[in-house]
Design goal:
The protein is mostly helical and about 300 residues long. The chain is built from 14 helices and no strands. Helix 3 runs antiparallel to helix 9.
């Protein structure tokens, strides 16, 4: 982000707002994506979402100004609206019981692979050819993922109960059972607050390490990889029987994440100590993510993708 800010003549916080914009747009568009997926199936939407992310990355890599860079968040938000929730919905539809928890754990574990493997790789590339080439390379890799999605995902079916609900009450008719279910609303609130803290921490972690801890790009890549290892391990642990089950487990894991990440940002730690603490801090995030997603799937009175 410091390199992008310098090239555009703007500040790191403003560059970071691109992530915020993508997240907000994703949240709004996701309200329409869920019922569409439950009605027509997730396959075409998932493929389209991957293509949208590829287009967003390519456009950002070629953007001549910060204004266009920020505007492309609309495309990225559309892709994120599809890709964040639907893999969890597929896991919820195709599995039950402990198999569902393990599937959600694997979906969650797939997310930090970008931090563990992708960030160091792209940081190395960026150190040689610049951040724009990193975005273009990532866009090409993402298009390859669209091909894998087209090959692997099963054909879409039709969710007739959802179609009936939409016909009777519109999109709000689909969401009405969720709005009346207080325990589920509490889980949505927990999920929203966790996401706000997590996105804020991860978005600005690299800039914090550069400005406050004196890290270079390679050091930041190692730090993100360390955090990714923690999320990966926490996700797989949360997918096991018992460990990530129930509201108490989610509360404990989230509290641990908050305390440990707070230590990373507040305590005068050395670079080595900072990197050593990141996996433990991120571990709780992985456990809690699996716990919340599994409870949403198990307790919902509505369809999986809508939930």
């Amino acid at each position: 982000m410091p390199a992008i800010a310098r090239d555009f003549g703007t500040s790191v916080p403003l560059v970071g707002q691109v992530t915020t914009a993508v997240t907000l747009i994703s949240a709004l568009l996701g309200l329409g994506i869920g019922p569409l997926a439950d009605r027509f199936g997730p396959r075409r939407l998932l493929i389209g979402g991957v293509v949208a992310v590829a287009g967003n990355l390519l456009g950002m890599g070629l953007a001549p100004s910060y204004a266009l860079f920020l505007t492309l968040a609309v495309v990225g938000g559309a892709g994120d609206a599809v890709l964040f929730g639907l893999p969890l919905a597929v896991a919820a539809i195709r599995f039950r019981g402990e198999a569902r928890r393990r599937a959600v754990g694997w979906v969650s574990a797939a997310l930090p692979i970008g931090s563990v493997g992708g960030v160091p790789l792209l940081a190395a590339v960026g150190g040689v050819v610049g951040w724009r080439a990193v975005f273009v390379v990532a866009a090409a890799g993402t298009l390859g993922a669209a091909g894998l999605a087209a090959r692997w995902l099963p054909a879409d079916g039709r969710g007739e109960p959802v179609a009936v609900a939409v016909a009777r009450g519109g999109v709000l008719g689909v969401y009405r059972p969720l709005l009346r279910h207080r325990p589920l609303l509490a889980l949505f609130g927990v999920s929203g607050l966790r996401a706000a803290s997590w996105v804020g921490l991860i978005t600005y972690l690299g800039a914090f390490l550069v400005d406050q801890r004196g890290f270079d790009a390679d050091g930041v890549a190692v730090a993100y990889a360390a955090a990714g290892v923690g999320v990966l391990a926490g996700s797989l642990a949360g997918g096991r029987v018992g460990l990530g089950s129930g509201r108490a487990a989610v509360a404990v894991a989230t509290a641990a994440q908050g305390v440990l990440f707070g230590a990373v940002f507040v305590l005068p730690l050395s670079g080595a100590a900072t990197i050593a603490l990141l996996p433990a801090a991120a571990f709780g995030g992985g456990v809690a993510f699996v716990g919340v997603a599994t409870m949403l799937a198990e307790e919902t009175p509505a369809s999986p993708a809508t939930t």
